[in-house]
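TICKET #2291
ISSUE: user wants both folds in one file
ATTACHMENT 1:
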Amino acid sequence: MTASSDTPLARLKDLGLTLPNAAAPVANYAPFVRAGALLFISGQLPLGVNGVDPAHRGKLGAGVSLEDGQSAARQAALNVLAQANVAVGDLSRLRAIRLGGYVNSAPDFAALPQVVNGASDLVAAVLGENGKHARFAVGVAQLPLDAAVEVEGIFEILA
């Protein structure tokens, strides 16, 4: 028998977090798609407590601090996990394959990996050994709703 802190939801609780409600798509796309044993989660914004507006808006390197960017990435990753939980019903059935982080950044902002670490660190903390993943972090000129960060994910659904 595993200890309760060995489950993803217990780890979330230990971090003082709960899964938010999965956000509804705002355009003509699916929030997630299953293809065989793979689960693709559409890009998620760092939506705040109202589930509509981003908790962090603006450009990294032009008004948004690195710490706020990391917080935005963490919130976006939490929203990725919320979508994944809706898709499979149990986060313990998932292994992270790849996270992608898009950072709304000024042209000279170079700390993109450090921003997306907010997402990677959360997924690793929640999924434990199954949270280790490949990743990309890119700077972009703009994101929907002027969000500071957007995170997408690919997961393997375990039997």
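ATTACHMENT 2:
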Amino acid sequence: MRSIIVAFSDPDIANKVKTILLRHDLPVRGVASSGAMTLRYTSPGDGGGLIVCGARFTDMAAINLLTMLSDDYDVLMLSSSMSAESSFGHMEGLYMLPLPLQAEDLVSSARMLLQTRQMYKDTTRIRKPSTGQGKPESDAAGRKPEEQRIIEQAKALLMSRNHLSEQEAHRFLQKKSMDTGTKLIDMAMTVLKSQDSGQM
């Protein structure tokens, strides 16, 4: 079963994040204070999961950690400088939330990443920067009005809950659909269903 590893150099931050996640019934496997310790919590065939961490540890950067993890792990990086996103590029499996953040934003993002990956965990990925050479669906091309409405609702939900721009929300849906080998409409429906069932 997929679970969460909380990894911060500062133990106070790590404990606060862990407390928030546990209070909302999210499965926390452990707390780590370095990249090496985080890797010790992972092993092949453990079901994968989500690493919630800062941008840097004392021994490595979050981006380096991501490249050492198996493909069934994602990294949710909390950073006070969202300009870091441009320096990291768009790595598959790397997601970011700005600090300071609301507890509900952390919880909804963690739930969404755990759930969408759990549903499609048999899909494999290559850890490399996205080159844009994939074949995302073109916006609204050949799409029924009802499907477009569902996609717009999912984007609005992501924008509201995760403080994303419309472009970022659309990019998130596209990226998740490509990562999991599903259609954009199916990923949008997954996002909306997770909200309806109270899992976000």
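RESOLUTION: both attachments delivered.
EXTRA DETAIL ON ATTACHMENT 2: Helices lie at 11-23, 35-40, 62-68, 84-88, 103-119, 145-162, 166-180, 184-196.
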